[in-house]
Amino acid sequence: MFTFLGCIALLIIGYFTYGKYVEKMFGVKAARPTPALTQADGVDYIPMSTKKNSLIQLLNIAGTGPIFGPIMGALYGPVAFIWIVVGCIFAGAVHDYLTGMISIRNRGAHLPELATKFLGKAMKHVVNAFALLLLLLVGTVFVTTPADLLYVLMDGKVALFLIVGAIFIYYILATLLPIDKIIGRLYPYFGALLLISAVGVFIGLLVTGANIPEISLSNFHPANAPIFPLLFFTITCGALSGFHATQTPIISRTTQNENQGRKIFYGMMIAEGIIAMIWAAAAMSLFDGYNGLNDLLAAGGPGLIVSEVSKMMLGGIGGTLAVLGVVVLPITSGDTAFRSARMIIADYLNFAQRKFSSRLWIAVPLFVISLALTQIDFNILWRYFSWANQSTAVIALFVGAMYLYIAKKNYWVSLIPGTFMLVMVLAYILNAQIGFRLPMTTSWIGSAIGTVILVALFFHTAKKNRALALPLEDDVSNWKKAA
């Protein structure tokens, strides 16, 4: 229990210390008008309050990742706690803050546009393809997972295809309508369910005196659970997730002032890390060790763990509310995944989105493709999602490092976690069944060589961009704030 509570305390301290340092180092410009004001269009660029933006940001980025990922990551033992804390403070929250703030400085641009500007034009098509693949996978995965949870919750009394259809209808409306019409209005209620589930399980762990394992040299992780590189693809959203780089620009377009950025971007990632800690601790402590947890996962996957934990901690009614809180997470990420995909395609094609028909032309093909993807085995989809997710995180961290290098600021805060994850991403795809299936030793060697080459290319490009004085932000000098 001391390790668990200490890790949560470290996450909170990280927000007030390292988060404050990153904010100060980046250099907030409170007087600079944000895209919510300069680009206002009544659809995607709409000024909203800090409280509402923070809640939407949390629900956007917190899909099943900070719950399902830590539950599966619990099989690796207490080392999962370390990755959640270190990853969240020094990688995930930095990733989210930089992508959000750099987007604000560049008209609310999405990651493909930012990568094109800061990493070179050759990255434009690559990053667009990566981002769209990731968002389609996220949207599809986050149709099937909440549908399965709801099907179990209703004891199979409602056909699964009807539940899937209802979720798709909601996603279509959330993708097409202005952000303040559905997302802005429903998310406060969804947020309440999320808080009930997380806080309820946390209190339950404390009251019942759950036997949460402490970190020690003897139980750091089970002997049959090698942590490199798989741990970093199992626990993603609770520590570092490239999916967040596709979501922060949604809120960068509704943020009223740059000084709200730390609370919205860095702070909500810390909140997600706390959620991940709670579910990892529950999974480690409530099922008679790793063998019991593994048996339950084999029997019903993470969804069964969620249901069992909720009932054990909160009883029948409270457990039902907790499961609904978990259902909310993928739904509130799936809707914005499709919305983000629409916005990225529109930016790529320079296709204005004020007209409903313009949004429809882009959205319909996305949902048709996603519907087809639901026919593919979930486990295969999840593996590709995990790799695409962390690959996108690497791109976003290198964008942040490039921005800071050109600005002559501490680019290491982004380059170090970016380089670490680059090693993991390359090693994973070289070794994995969905990749090249090379021996692990060969994969590590290939990963090291690839990382050295790509980091060297980064510094070459960075020095050139700094010498050319690449503009870091869009000019808003001619914008006049309405009286």
Automatic annotation (TrEMBL):
Q: According to its UniProt record, where is this protein mainly located?
A: membrane
This protein's membrane topology, according to the annotation, is: Multi-pass membrane protein
Which intervals of the chain form a coiled coil?
none
Any one GO biological process:
cellular response to starvation
Q: Which GO terms describe its cellular component?
A: plasma membrane
Location(s) in or outside the cell: Cell membrane
Q: Which UniProt keywords apply?
A: Cell membrane, Membrane, Transmembrane, Transmembrane helix
CstA N-terminal domain location is 7-151, 164-288, 307-426
- Highest taxon of source: Bacteria
Task: Mark the transmembrane ranges.
Answer: 75-98, 126-147, 159-179, 186-207, 227-243, 264-287, 312-332, 360-381, 387-406, 411-430, 442-459
Into which family does the record put it?
Belongs to the peptide transporter carbon starvation (CstA) (TC 2.A.114) family.
The protein depicted here goes by the name Carbon starvation protein CstA
